[in-house]
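Preliminary data (for renewal application), tryptophan complex.
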Amino acid sequence: MSKKRILSGIQPSGTIHLGNYFGAIENWVKLLDEYECFFSIVDYHAITAPYDAALLPGRIREAALDNMAAGLDPERCTLFVQSHVPEHTELCWLLNCATPLGELFRMTQFKDKRQQHGWENISAGLLNYPILQAADILIYRADAVPVGEDQAQHLEFTREVARRFNTKFGQYFAEPKTIIGRGKRVMGLDGVGKMSKSMNNFIGLTEPAEAVWEKLRPAKTDEARQRRSDPGDPFKCNIYSYHELVTGDEQLAEIRQGCTTAGIGCIDCKKILAANLEKVVAPIRERRAELEKKPEYVRDSLMAAAEKCRAIARKTVDETKSLMGLGGQI
Ligand code: TRP
Ligand code: SF4
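Predicted structure:
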């Protein structure tokens, strides 16, 4: 029996951090054997918001290197750059014409951006963003899409696009399922919101150990622990939430015990965290350094992936056009 196919999209927003890793990539890596996996670095989506054209190529490269190093091994999945497969935009156009405008105006992401920036300052691309995303998925006839909670509406929209198309032009697209990742929510260093690059509140996945320590050392802990002798509550401490990502059960129990009895100091607790984190990220950092030494390998694997994608995508676009009455003999 052939494997089911999944696809997900990766925003090329620069260096990735622990939030990206534990929130998404770590889960994807677990799916690599069970499914036929496609991962797209969605540069066509990245240009829907204002951006610096001079910086974009670097961001795309970073996204490719980071994700390959973090486990999206080109030998085990199809990792490609969206704009290398122009068929995505071709299918997007076809689907655009089969989607009512009202549906797009109702999307939360669009409504938020419109309110924030105003009609004149957002692009038509932003309005059509969900259709491009639907095209990304439907073009490979993906069975399922692993994403975070925040993408649920886009996935529901994708299924509606498929349904509407099928009703108008004949049963063709299967409705893809959503696999909501049990990805972990990683808090930022300030312990207030989600880890995010824009808030400069993050630990980069491939940062050197010393740089990570410079961030952890001053990071906030449970406020009750003013002095070394004050007991604390690990569940009120952001550092403990990081321990939960990388520390084994036995040691976790020791830390809880040490924290509530003031048996362990925060600095020692952070040192243990830094050491455990290093065990997870060191191999990723090393793989990343290896990949940087082989730019032609990275380039070739992205090109080979795009070629494989184009063959599948071309077929879908041709069949879609044909169902829509286009591309036939004149
Ligand atoms: N919109 C997604 C995000 O912001 C990225 C994305 C683009 C995507 N195309 C996709 C996700 C296709 C899943 C499937 O994260
Ligand atoms: Fe947080 Fe550890 Fe300090 Fe407890 S001992 S408050 S878990 S850093």
